[in-house]
Amino acid sequence: MIRQDISGKQAKIVYLSIGSNLGNRFCNIEKAKFELSNKGIFILKSSCYYETLSWPDPKKPKFYNIVLKVKTLLDVKNLLYICKEIEKSLGRKKAIINSPRECDIDIIDYNKELSKKVINLPHPRMHRRNFVLIPLYEVDRDWKHPVTKQHIKTLIFLLSNSDISSIKQI
After folding, report:
1. Is CB count within 10 Å lower at the N or C end of the chain?
2. Phi-psi category of 112—alpha, beta or left, where left has phi over 0 and alpha has psi -120 to 50?
3. What is the C-alpha separation between 113 and 146, in angstroms, rounded?
4. Per DSSP, what are the bridge partners of residue 20?
């Protein structure tokens, strides 16, 4: 059973990254957004779609990626559970790390909280990923990394030229 966080009854601002590189990538992401909304997760803003090479093997199918800014009363444990259930419902199976997948939902930033308990927050590699930073900038131009306090623009400027040139808005 999923329970809403009633400790403070305060809605949390959360940033989610959604990607897909198997099947109908666009449809998979739209279904994930629909399912999130059905679970009481209110989508405040959605980025455009971006296409990126698969990492670490660019020979695998390309990804479509978006970032969502959402509001929820769920605690991080229940939000993670819902994200994993949505991934499974869209066909994701246990596989080797970085394998192609129908749906991948990552919690990038959960209300600026720092944690290593249920999951690492903020996402430990998000500051090096073009497919997170560029759509994140689109949904919140004032976002700052909860640990380093670096502005989103600074993080984007720290990406390599190849990371910047390899991402394509669709």
Report:
1. N
2. left
3. 7
4. 64
Cα 97 to Cα 45, 55, 67, 83, 100: the distances in Å are 29, 11, 21, 17, 9
Q: How far is CA 108 from the centre of its chain?
A: 5
The 8-class DSSP code of residue 74 comes to: B
Between CA 60 and CA 19 the distance in angstroms is 14
Cβ-proximal residues to 21 (8 Å cutoff; 6+ apart), any chain: 54, 60, 61, 62, 63, 64, 100, 101
Whether the CB-CB separation of 18 and 123 falls below 8 Å is answered with no
Cα–Cα distance for residue pair 80/94, rounded to 1 Å: 16
Measured between alpha carbons, how far is 127 from 157 in angstroms, rounded to an integer?
A: 11
Task: Give the residue extent of every domain in the chain.
Answer: 12-169
* pTM for this entry: 0.91
C-alpha pair distances (Å), 123 with each of 16, 39, 64, 165: 10, 22, 19, 23
What top-level class would CATH report for the domain 12-169? alpha beta
Displacement of CA 142 from its chain's centroid (Å): 17
pLDDT above 80: residue 6: no
Question: Strands 168-169 and 63-72, how do they pair?
Answer: unpaired
